[in-house]
Amino acid sequence: MKPIRNSAKAIIIYDGKVLLTKNKDQEGFFYLFPGGGQEHGEQLSDALKRECMEEIGCHIRVHDLAYVREYIGKNHQFAEWDADVHQVEFYFVAELDERIPPTEQEAQIFAGTNPDEYQVGVEWVALSALDHIRVYPAQLIPKLQGRGEKDVYMGDTN
């Protein structure tokens, strides 16, 4: 059995758009919030800064903790290969530190130092368009759009 893994994720919103990593699998494109696993001895905020550099190629400023999500793989659609995964994700409000956020064209060519296996790019996605694409976790979409409950703890969700 694998140990529980902590993960820090960034919610970077600018001008009605959220910055997401664009990924591709056998079903097509899907989007994730930038961030990833915490290493032993690393603060969550430092993990998030490192992961954002790896995935989106930008320094960020980390602000408040906004949401906490658990993912227990055996309970979801990817149980076939994720059954032994239990991850706790901490979603922080963040902003790009280096300059004004890039245009959509620039975001397409962001170069992280160590992108995830399925990552094919970075994209600014309009908050209003999130309902029309595959985003994980889907439960975060209505919260970002200003609808639904504002509970910080989202529980075990995909």
UniProtKB/TrEMBL annotation:
Annotated protein name in UniProt: NUDIX domain-containing protein
Xref: PANTHER family: GDP-MANNOSE MANNOSYL HYDROLASE, MUTT_NUDIX FAMILY PROTEIN
Coiled-coil region(s): none
Pfam family, one: NUDIX
Gene3D superfamilies according to UniProt: Nucleoside Triphosphate Pyrophosphohydrolase
Cofactor(s) named in the record: Mg(2+)
Entries under InterPro entries matching the protein: NUDIX_hydrolase-like_dom_sf, NUDIX_hydrolase_dom
Keywords: Hydrolase
Keyword Cytoplasm on entry: no
Sequence ranges assigned to domain Nudix hydrolase in this UniProt record: 3-148
